[in-house]
Amino acid sequence: MGKDARGFMLLSIHPTHAADILSGRKTVELRRARPSITPGQLVLLYASSPVCAVVGACRVDSLETGALATIKRKYLRSAAIPGRAFETYYLGAAAATALLLDCATALPNPVPLSTLRESPATTPTQSWRFVSKESFVPLLREADRRALDILAERGSNGPGEHDEDSHKGTARTGSRRP
After folding, report:
1. How many whole angstroms separate alpha carbon 132 and alpha carbon 149?
2. Which of 19, 78, 120, 154 has the highest local Cβ count within 10 Å?
3. Looking at residue 30, which CATH number applies to its domain?
4. Residue at 175 is within a domain
């Protein structure tokens, strides 16, 4: 499950954005700091309050860091946020990072915060962190393990091919698994 030796990237995200990623409406996640990841990285989507659970997973197809105006022009629509929210989020920042996501899959059984807190190794942060496969996978039910296996298999051939316009409002996600 996943190619990165560090395991999964546990990404804390507003529940609306998590739902938009899982539906395919949002294919780009914007961040102020560029995480140390490579294309193909598996990402666990932790929907913050009031949901407070890992609700799905996706894969990082590619990353781009650049000038605010460039990232806004190329990815605002795919990030599914208003321009004003972009401006507020990046106030005072010199650059922006776009995580281009694909293969979004909902977990059949979301993993609640109470379960994540059973181990300090899986407690979410306000932004993101890495969690090892060894600490996270035991928290999953069998159906969720299968969903992550399928996601890892989809990404086993490396990142998908795309041009810079491919994330402008086009869903590049896999179907949700029941």
Report:
1. 15
2. 78
3. 2.30.130.30
4. no
